[in-house]
Structure formats: structure tokens, C-alpha cells
Amino acid sequence: MPRLSPASLDDPRLTFAALAFPIGTRLALRFDDDPDERSLMLALIGWMEPESVLAGGTARIVLPAHAREGAGVRARLRQGSLVCTFASRLLSVRVLPHPCLQFAYPTTLHLSRVRDAMRVRTGIPATAVVDGMDERIDCTIRDLSPKGVRVVAAGRLGETGSRVDLRFTLEVDDAAVPVSLGGRVLHATPARVNGYAAGWNHGVVLSALPITSLETIERYLRARRAGRPSES
Fold first, then answer.
1. Max alpha carbon distance in the chain (Å)?
2. 139 closest CA partner among 178, 166, 170, 115
3. Domains defined for the chain, CATH in brackets
4. Which residues on adjacent β-strands are paired with residue 44?
5. What is the pLDDT of residues 73-90, one digit of tens each?
6. Is 219 exposed, middle or buried (CB count within 10 Å of its CB: 0-12, 13-18, 19+)?
7. pLDDT tens digits, one per residue of 118-177
8. Which residue has the higher pLDDT, 231 or 227?
9. CB atoms within 10 A of CB 207
10. Residue 88 CA to chain centroid, in angstroms?
């Protein structure tokens, strides 16, 4: 795969073919008509630019009823630290000798590197505002890094690609420091605890941080990783 700088992830000229995901890369597919937001795990077979992308699975995979021509889908692939998501629609579905789905070549990609070496698990109370809405929604930051966060909320915080504003407080050097961050929803999945529905998980890739916010987060993360009692 090509090496991409953080700035190039927002380049609208970047195409799926240019990413050169290896054949066999795991591909999680969700159907717009599925209220349970279940993921169908497939493998990338190939692509034909600019017509379509192919993904398939073993004969043991049972395709859901939503897997039909014209169905809206959302795909997610990951290779190393790079995550790619996009929306599309099914062009054709083949069941035998093994499942093979063909969907329209994506015109818009959402790319990020959410995972980070400094990421730590947290339970920070926060509020979120989705772009275009006035209501501030209570949520919890479960993972935090300088590049991305995992946010859990009772409801879904917009669609993939939605802009969100997060506000919370970090305890740094025995002081409460307010933090405000902007980012983009990379993906949203139903959260479950002991098999029961527990709101929604959101992967949020952060926009470029002001230097003061970046320093605050890095100090907090270093303290957490060092296990300082005052930072727990």
C-alpha cells in the first residue's frame, strides 16, 4: 500500500484503486435496511475502476435477506493503521459456489488512522454536538488519543462523515482543564454489554488540534500510561 501522510487522507482526488488494498483484506459490510446494524464479514476480491468492487466469503457464510441488488451498503476495510469506509449499493449478488457481492465503485472515501500508540482506555464524561444540530448530547469517551477517540452515546451521533464537537474535562497535574475537540464520525456500531444493547459506539477521527489542546491530551495520556493515581 502507498504511504499516506495525514494531510493526504482528506485529498478528494484519492481513489479506492490508489489505496491498493491487498486482495484478501477483510471487509465489513453493513446494509442500510438492517435495523440491527449487523456486519457481514467478507474478503476483498478485487475492483474494476471506475465500475465496481468485489467482495466474497466462504460457502459457510449465509447472506442476509438485505443482500439484494440495489441495496444500500456501507463498507469498512483496515490495513495496518489505515481505515477506509465508504457508502455504496449492490450491483449483483452471487450465492454459488460461494457468496460474491459486487457493489458500485465508491466515489467518496472516508480515511483515517484512528488507532494510536498513545491511546488509553478511559471513562470520561463528555458532551457532543453534531454539525447542524443545536442539542448537546451526553456521552462518554471510552478511548482517547491525539488522533482519534471512541465515543459511546445512548443514540447515534449522526452518519458516517458527520462533523461533531466534543467537550470534556481532563485532570492534568491536579488541575481540571476544559477541552474542546472537533472531528468526523468514521463509523458507528451498536454497543453491547453482556449481550444487551447499550447505546452506540462511535469511532471519531479528530481534526488538527490546537497546540494547547494537543499538549493537554498528551500530558494526560502520559500520566495515565505511567499509572499516576491523580490521573485515574
1. 62
2. 166
3. 6-112 (2.30.110.10), 120-231 (2.40.10.220)
4. 55
5. 999 988 777 788 899 999
6. middle
7. 667 888 999 999 988 888 999 999 888 888 889 999 999 888 888 999 999 998 888 899
8. 227
9. 13
10. 16
